[in-house]
Amino acid sequence: MRILIVEDDFISRKLLQRLRGHYGECDIAVNGQEAIEAFSMAHKESKPYDLVCMDIMMPVVDGQQALKEIREIERAMDMPMSQEVKVIMTTALDDPRNVVESFYKGGATSYITKPIDKKKLLDEIRSLGLTV
Predict the structure, then answer these.
(1) Quick check: 16 and 53 in contact, CB under 8 A?
(2) Cis omega (within 30 of 0) on the bond before 115?
(3) Could you give the CA distance from residue 117 to residue 105 in angstroms, rounded to a whole number?
């Protein structure tokens, strides 16, 4: 499984990398712009990501905007919805506006609040049909 972790906070990034590192190849991006670039490059190299874990509040380009741009890239490739990358949005804010923005406007697959619990994350990944 190929995983892209998009997180500007060093501690959260290392935690996610450690949790996911046992289950697949992990790449790191520290902001939404890097995530968009990594996502595009992975497709150009024919090695797309299976999972993206993306923070919402980040500098340069936030997670919400990065997710919208990733979905636009997929639409431009005429990718069927069933083949879109699974995206788990993460945030310290548990507010309904972020949930609505992530799911309905951005096309997120899932949403987890921080601090991230290992069991909850692994259960969520399994529920998305990804092998862990």
Answers:
(1) yes
(2) yes
(3) 26
Q: Which of 27, 79, 80, 81 has the alpha carbon at shortest distance from 51?
A: 27
Q: Answer for the pair 61, 33: CB distance below 8 angstroms, yes or no.
A: yes
What single letter denotes the amino acid at residue 59? P
Phi/psi of residue 6, nearest 5 degrees: -120, 105
Write out the DSSP string of the chain: -EEEEE-SSHHHHHHHHHHHHTTSEEEEESSHHHHHHHHHHHHHTT---SEEEEESS-SSS-HHHHHHHHHHHHHHTT--GGGSPEEEEEES---HHHHHIIIIIT--SEEEESSPPHHHHHHHHHHTT---
CATH number of 2-127: 3.40.50.2300
Low-confidence ranges of the chain (pLDDT < 50): none
Read off the pLDDT of residues 96-121 as tens digits, 9 standing for 90 and up: 666 666 665 568 888 888 888 888 88
Domain map (residue ranges) of the chain: 2-127
pTM, rounded to two decimals: 0.88
Calculate ∠ Cα 119-92-24, nearest 5°: 40
